[in-house]
Write a structure and sequence with these properties.
The structure is a single chain. Helix 5 links the parallel strand 4 and strand 5 (110-117). The chain is of the alpha/beta class and 210 residues long. The protein folds into 2 domains: 9-79, Orthogonal Bundle (Arc Repressor Mutant, subunit A), CATH 1.10.10.10; 85-197, Rossmann fold (3-Layer(aba) Sandwich). The strands form 2 sheets. Strands 6-7-5-4-8-9-10 form a 7-stranded mixed beta sheet, sandwiched between helices. Helices cover 44% and strands 19% of the residues.
Length: 210
């Protein structure tokens, strides 16, 4: 990624969405699209799209819209969105299984590298062509090229597991446990995903008309 180019955090969060959409359009032979057309497909309003693309560079041309191939090239060269990141999954309960299955059907800029659990009934079995590995042996089994972990485990175990994984070199976490976790290391990034909080916020917005 071009470290000298400042791109707002919110824009960076949307880049994978744009990239996935643009790649699918390219596969269909589409060469250009306007922000209005992209808005209908991405469900992101056209003003936001224009602002995001402006933060990246002068990507569009008046009258022709955005050249899809050119934007994909910028995304890949400057933001390395074509370099897949390996992700390990910790926990193969109902939620962990859903995360693993999601990887099977979705194109993404990441791929599922390994699955770990502590359940003796699961360890050594195969799930979607992945052998379920023993978390207690992760120090020896961890894919050293992987730096992201998805936590789909009971909340009371989340902090201990995170601290352990940080010591092994994991730098990014997606936390589905519903329990807040922390790291004192500034280079460790944690994304909290609380499904109940999302649903409660949705209910509130529906009831208040927002």
């Amino acid at each position: 990624m071009n470290k000298n180019k400042y791109v707002p955090f919110a824009t960076r969060r949307r880049l994978p969405i744009y990239y996935k959409l643009l790649k699918s359009l390219q596969k269909r032979g589409v060469e250009s699209m306007t922000s209005t057309q992209l808005a209908k497909l991405s469900k992101i309003d056209s003003t936001t799209i224009r602002r995001d693309f402006s933060a990246i560079g002068k990507l569009g041309k008046k009258g022709t819209g955005y050249l899809i191939g050119s934007i994909i090239e910028i995304f890949e060269n400057e933001f390395e969105l074509n370099n897949l990141e390996g992700v390990i999954l910790i926990g193969l309960g109902h939620l962990g299984s859903a995360v693993a299955k999601y990887y099977e059907i979705q194109d993404s800029i990441s791929y599922l590298s390994q699955i770990y659990d502590t359940d003796k009934n699961l360890i050594g079995t195969t799930f979607m062509d992945y052998e379920v590995l023993d978390y207690n042996k992760i120090d020896k089994l961890l894919d050293k090229n992987t730096h992201i972990a998805v936590l789909a485990i009971p909340g009371e175990k989340a902090q201990v597991v995170l601290d352990h994984l940080v010591s092994l070199g994991i730098k990014g976490f997606v936390n589905f446990t519903g329990t807040k976790v922390f790291s004192s290391k500034p280079d460790v990034l944690i994304s909290e995903v609380d499904l109940m909080q999302v649903i409660q916020s949705l209910i509130y917005d529906m009831r208040t008309g927002y």
